[in-house]
């Protein structure tokens, strides 16, 4: 969002400058500056607002499956739209990107000025936000981008359900005590988008599916229906995917929320071997298990699947702690507290800082929502998928920065001697890249790719409030992570 604000400031400055030049009657400079403004204001993304309808996808056994797209229903977040950028006429290459933006599954985190943990202002941002905020894989002007000649379908996020819900859920707002309906219709929005793809890309040949944070989960959970839709358009199409910063380290039993709160049972890809209609509520469902099943199911089609994370991803650590806090059912508070090391910064007194700095460190064996336990579980899960799915690869980056694929920083990221874009380019071609990872030995996992917070800058490494008080970075605090 900061990038978008910078562009707006630049436009205002240029407009003011043009006004001065009018007085000097300098037509050539005015024309030049007007061209700059026209370029800044040009939006290559077409906005599409779908209506309720039906979709047929043979491979998913969907025959006129109904969908009713919508955002959650809160003020500024009612109407779902998606965006398409056309790079060339009759393009056979398509990038599908699922936007991130948190999640909510309880009165604790669906409401409150300081406790809402999902993006609920889609209709309040200008359409140009896609152009200015989302770069990286969506930047056609970067010669290193493996998707520079792909059309882009960008699926915004406004439902708090990881793009997978299909239920209008009633919650109690703890601030007012009133009953409020939240429309968790992420899966409906996905189906509406896929219906559009069916009509616009009948001969598509190369598809890459990705998403960041909540959008990464959306990518994984919806990959089967996306894959079957594309197969229905072209049985020989190549499809690959990467989920970005979506490791699914969760407390036991959390998957049942996808069923009870979001109504996601009907969204499950029950044609995938091992995923049944009651998958979310029976046995021990997990991201590791789901990822393994999906990857192995499509291995025969040549699909390659990938997973990216920063080893101390701050926002993922934050959400892991939020889950544990909500499970403990404390007294609700919408109050703010001040960052102990940055007096200009405040955040939820109940949940802590979204950058993960306030999350307790714990130890590698912790399962209570602490930092070191999150990291160990994330690494263990990725190694587990790698051992079980021959078409899966991971990239474990240093630092605590949350998401990478819509940032220009992805072009300079390195982990264990492997450049991220080189790794991603290999994956995008349908060739399995080798696993890449940093190492906790020698501090390689904390000395780069860290957020520019007060405490991180002070140590020139990824740290936490608790570790910083002991003059330690997170690698020193957690020790050697098994599997790195």
TrEMBL record:
InterPro entries: AB_hydrolase_fold, PAE/NOTUM. Signal peptide: none annotated. GO terms for molecular function: hydrolase activity. This is Pectinacetylesterase domain protein. The lineage of its organism: Bacteria, Pseudomonadati, Spirochaetota, Spirochaetia, Leptospirales.
């Amino acid at each position: 969002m900061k990038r978008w604000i910078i562009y707006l400031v630049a436009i205002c400055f240029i407009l003011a400058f043009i006004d001065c030049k009018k007085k000097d009657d300098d037509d050539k400079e005015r024309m030049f500056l007007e061209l700059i403004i026209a370029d800044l204001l040009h939006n290559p993304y077409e906005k599409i607002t779908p209506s309720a309808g039906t979709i047929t996808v043979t491979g998913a056994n969907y025959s006129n499956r109904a969908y009713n797209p919508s955002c959650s229903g809160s003020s500024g977040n009612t109407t779902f739209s998606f965006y398409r950028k056309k790079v060339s006429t009759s393009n056979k290459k398509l990038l599908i990107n699922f936007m991130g933006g948190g999640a909510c599954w309880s009165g604790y985190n669906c409401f409150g000025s300081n406790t809402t943990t999902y993006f609920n202002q889609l209709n309040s941002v200008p359409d140009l936000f896609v152009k200015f905020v989302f770069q990286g894989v969506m930047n056609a002007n970067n010669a290193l981008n493996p998707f520079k000649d792909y059309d882009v379908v960008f699926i915004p996020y406004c439902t708090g359900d990881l793009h997978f819900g299909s239920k209008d859920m009633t919650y109690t707002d703890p601030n007012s005590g009133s009953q409020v309906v939240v429309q968790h219709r992420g899966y409906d929005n996905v189906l509406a988008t896929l219906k559009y793809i069916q009509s616009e890309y009948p001969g598509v040949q190369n598809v890459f599916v990705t998403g960041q944070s909540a959008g990464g989960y959306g990518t994984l959970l919806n990959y089967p229906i996306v894959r079957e839709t594309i197969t229905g358009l072209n049985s020989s199409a190549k499809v690959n995917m990467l989920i970005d910063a979506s490791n699914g380290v969760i407390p036991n039993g959390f998957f049942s929320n996808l069923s009870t709160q979001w109504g996601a049972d009907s969204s499950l890809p029950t044609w995938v071997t091992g995923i049944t209609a009651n998958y979310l509520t029976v046995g021990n469902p997990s991201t590791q298990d789901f990822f393994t099943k999906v990857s192995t199911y499509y291995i025969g089609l040549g699909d390659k699947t990938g997973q990216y994370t920063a080893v101390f991803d701050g926002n993922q650590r934050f959400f892991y702690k939020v889950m544990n806090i909500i499970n403990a059912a404390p007294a609700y508070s919408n109050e703010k507290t001040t960052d102990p090391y940055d007096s200009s910064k405040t955040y939820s007194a109940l949940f802590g800082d979204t950058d993960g700095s306030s999350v307790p460190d714990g130890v590698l064996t912790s399962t209570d929502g602490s930092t070191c336990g999150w990291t160990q579980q994330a690494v263990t899960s990725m190694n587990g998928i790698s051992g079980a799915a021959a078409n899966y690869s991971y990239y474990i980056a240093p630092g605590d920065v949350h998401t990478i694929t819509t940032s220009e920083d992805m072009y300079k990221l390195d982990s264990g001697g492997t450049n991220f874009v080189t790794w991603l380019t290999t994956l995008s071609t349908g060739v399995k890249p080798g696993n890449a990872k940093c190492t906790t030995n020698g501090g390689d996992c904390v000395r780069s790719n860290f957020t520019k917070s007060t405490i991180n800058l002070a140590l020139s490494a990824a740290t936490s409030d608790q570790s910083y008080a002991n003059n330690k970075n997170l690698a020193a605090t957690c020790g050697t992570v098994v599997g790195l």
